[in-house]
Amino acid sequence: MALLSIENVCVSYDKVEAVHNVSLSIEAGQIVTVIGPNGAGKTTLMMAIIGLLKSTGRMEYLGQDLSRLEVESRVGQGLCLVPEKRELFHDMSVYDNLILGSYSRQDRSQVPQDLDGVFDRFPRLKERRSQMAGTLSGGERQMLALGRALMSRPKLLMLDEPSLGLAPLIVREIFRTIASLRETGVSILLVEQNARAALETADYGYVIETGEIVQSGPANTLIHDEKLIAAYLGGH
Ligand SMILES: Nc1ncnc2c1ncn2[C@@H]1O[C@H](COP(=O)(O)OP(=O)(O)OP(=O)(O)O)[C@@H](O)[C@H]1O
Ligand SMILES: [Mg+2]
């Protein structure tokens, strides 16, 4: 059974449809990527899955109908969104931001252990645990946003353009981290304009254009697709 499966999902802003009849599914432990250009509907799709935007169609998560659940319940059941803007509490320390990430959890006794896990994964955050989040560099902010999401022990982690605006070296580090999260058993929905890096990291990929899925397949097949190479993969 898929962890998340959505079918014929449509999302509109007022009367303008931004996501049209999108169907996709994510198996437990899989990294699935949705790639596509600016304005294709990637962020809109994730906002609908977490429940911040209304949608039509069917969404099933852990075998239950998601449309019945409010945002809080979706988060409580392990759905977690790291938004494009990596919103953090700027006037709070790295440590406090991480602890806040664990608030949706019931198993409080596991929090210190998971905090150690995040610091092991991101030594830079450990060094800067007392630093205010607002003074971190772009790459460190993305690490903190990821670390904070992990503190909620997500089952499905949705990452909206984690590489946006970051230098190539940091982008590689972020994608290495995403790939390494596989071992923890978390499933990941990765939305990216950086199509090559996303396909190198993912198991399966979907291509979205003007709100519709136009292509899908195993990531290692898509990465060799000539049409996609010409359109999104920089002609390499
Ligand atoms: N709040 C809004 N009100 C009206 N239209 C919106 C709103 N947010 C997004 N849109 C429109 O919906 C479409 C999809 O936008 P969305 O942000 O989901 O695209 P995206 O694929 O995430 O793009 P990007 O790669 O630039 O982040 C666009 O045409 C956009 O202008
Ligand atoms: Mg977006």
Q: How many distinct folded domains? A: 2
Helix content: 25-40%
Tell me which ligands are bound.
adenosine-5'-triphosphate, magnesium ion
- CATH top level class name of the largest domain: Alpha Beta
- Summarize model confidence as the mean pLDDT: 93
State the helix count.
10
Strand residue percentage: 25-35%
Distance between the termini: 36 Å
**Could you list the spans in which at least 5 consecutive residues all have pLDDT below 50?**
none
CATH topology descriptor of the largest domain: Rossmann fold
* SSE sequence, one letter per element: EEEHEEHEHHHHEHEHEEHH
Q: Supply the CATH superfamily name of the largest domain.
A: P-loop containing nucleotide triphosphate hydrolases
Keywords:
single chain, 236 residues, alpha/beta, Rossmann fold, 2 domains, six-stranded mixed sheet, four-stranded antiparallel sheet, 10 helices, 35% helix, 26% strand, globular, binds adenosine-5'-triphosphate, binds magnesium ion
